[in-house]
Design brief:
There is one protein chain. The longest helix has 13 residues. The radius of gyration is 30 Å and the shape is elongated. It has three domains: 93 residues, Alpha-Beta Plaits, CATH 3.30.70; 69 residues, 2-Layer Sandwich (GMP Synthetase, Chain A, domain 3); 192 residues, Rossmann fold, CATH 3.40.50.150. It has 469 residues and is an alpha/beta fold. It has a seven-stranded mixed β-sheet, sandwiched between helices. A four-stranded antiparallel β-sheet has the order 2-3-1-4. 25% of the residues lie in helices and 23% in strands. The protein binds S-adenosylmethionine. S-adenosylmethionine binds next to loops. GO terms for molecular function: tRNA (guanine(37)-N1)-methyltransferase activity.
Length: 469
């Protein structure tokens, strides 16, 4: 990145590779090839120490000779700074022939892999930058260099401003490459197709998704009120759960449905496109059908219409993130073992589930306002119809530095309308200097959730069925 910043005169259209050339004058010791390693080990602490730059190079004047390049600190021809003792030891092996040499770092020298390792989710072909203010002047050239150095990448974008819309979708400026933001990401053995410009996705939640779905057991029923494109729902279904997954964003629900099909868990997930409160009420009052279900064919048709070509999973499998700790970096045997394990899991059919009788977990990942949605759980379940234990709620929220865990639990209790016993408050991640994301988990108190007056389940009103086709 330093090389990019230091490069003056870069045109935003195309890359002027000559602008990336940096010349470093260095003092060197000229010695015969056969003695070079012996002398280099004597002088090691004085020699050039730069990543990917050799400190022993061939003498351009004579291929039988080598140049030992000194660090910037040894800049004088008399090798001032090197101990007398070392100089004497060297002189016993070779004559002290000190010359000047120029180290040339060209365009190919400047790496971008380390940047991408942090920002590029496995399988993805879109590099999503979040450039600092002082780098914005160079945004186009930064993007073009990243694209140029990584043939598997198709698009480089920069996040613009803060997220304010209710679907939590950031605004992106396309800096280089193809204008499409449709891509595929691998996470925990699942494939997620998404349109970065239309749906919420945050790869920093990868660990949190896993922490939570690892708590779900095969055969359990999961209710995800703010499901996005399915990072909780799909792995949960893959490990043998049935999932009711809802999102207000119709595009998220279309991708959720498509991802259910891609990951072969379509029979275990029912997708809804409703406001979360409405979704919860419908879930426990309807006995048949699937209100809000979205046909994945709609999405496939849209993608082919706009000409978007999404690289296949196969193409992406050897992506840049190979060698990182992302799932794609797994060795083939590990991947095979994982696949075998997934296929051993008995998938649960959503059609066999009666959510008005029982569900096990409620996931609420809308940190900006999920606490407020806890009110929908008050009196939600019907006495005489509910069976078994009470569901465990996982409600995400933000906490400011002037707040305590107790303040957050108090807020949760206020919205829920009842007290919470033994809440588990887990710190998910730092969001800003004064803000962290938390997950508050607790068992839904029976006295809060079960309605005092038992009512018969309402009949399904077919007019409620939502079609996005
Ligand atoms: C922070 S994202 C979480 C998505 C997903 N669970 C994840 O972990 O990536 C919150 C999601 O809630 C959806 N959302 C916002 N308001 C909603 C509402 N009132 N009812 C249902 N979903 C809503 C947004 O569209 C967004 O996809």
């Amino acid at each position: 990145m330093l090389g990019i910043m230091a490069a003056p005169g870069c045109s935003p259209v195309g890359i002027d590779k000559s602008a990336f050339v940096v010349r470093l004058p260095r003092v060197a010791l000229r010695i015969p090839k056969q003695k070079s390693h012996r002398v280099a080990s004597l002088l090691s602490k004085y020699l050039l120490d730069m990543p990917r730059v050799k400190h022993i190079v061939e003498d351009p004047q004579d291929p039988s000779m080598r140049l030992l390049l000194f660090s910037e600190a040894i800049a004088q021809p008399d090798l001032e700074g090197v101990s007398e003792e070392k100089i004497l030891a060297v002189k016993e092996i070779v004559p002290l022939d000190v010359v000047q040499h120029e180290v040339v770092l060209d365009y190919s020298y400047w790496p971008v892999e380390h940047i991408l390792k942090e920002i590029l989710p496995a399988g993805c072909h879109i590099a999503h930058l979040n450039l600092r203010e002082d780098l914005l002047t160079y945004k186009k050239i930064i993007a073009e260099v990243i694209l140029d150095k990584n043939p598997k990448l198709k698009t480089v974008v920069n996040k613009v401003g803060t997220i304010t819309n209710e679907f939590r979708v950031p605004e992106f400026e396309i800096l280089a490459g193809e204008p499409s933001l449709v891509t595929e990401i691998k996470q925990h053995g699942a494939t997620f197709r998404l349109d970065y410009g239309m749906v919420y996705w945050n790869s920093r939640l990868e660990g949190e998704h896993k922490r939570l779905f690892a708590q779900f057991k095969p055969g359990q029923v999961i209710v995800d009120m703010f499901a996005g494109i399915g990072p909780f729902a799909i792995p949960a279904a893959q490990q043998g759960c049935a999932v009711y997954a809802n999102d207000l964003n119709p595009t998220s629900v279309k991708f959720l449905k498509l991802n259910s099909d891609i990951n072969k868990v379509g029979e275990s997930i029912k997708a809804f496109n409703l406001d979360a409160r409405e979704f919860m009420r419908k879930l426990v009052t309807e006995e048949e059908g699937c209100v809000g279900e979205i046909a994945s064919s709609t999405l496939i048709a849209e993608n082919s219409l706009n000409g978007t070509r999404i690289p296949s999973s196969k193409e992406n499998s050897s992506s840049l993130t190979e060698g990182s700790d992302m799932p794609s970096s797994k060795k083939p045997e590990e991947r095979k073992a994982k696949k075998a394990k997934v296929s051993e899991v008995v998938k649960m059919k959503i059609s066999d589930v009666k959510p008005w009788e029982h569900f096990d977990h409620v996931v609420m990942n809308l940190p900006a306002s999920a606490l407020e949605f806890l009110d929908v759980l008050n009196g939600l379940l019907c006495k005489g119809r509910w069976k078994g234990t009470m569901p465990r709620v996982h409600c995400y929220c933000f906490m400011r530095s002037n707040e305590t865990n107790a303040d957050i639990v108090k807020k949760a209790e206020t919205y829920l309308g009842g007290s919470i016993a033994d809440p588990d408050v887990y710190v998910v991640r730092d969001v800003a200097p004064n803000k962290i994301m938390l997950c508050v988990s607790f068992n839904l108190p029976e006295e809060v959730a079960i309605a005092v007056t038992a009512t018969e389940p309402a009949a399904l009103d077919q007019n409620d069925a939502l079609s996005l086709e």
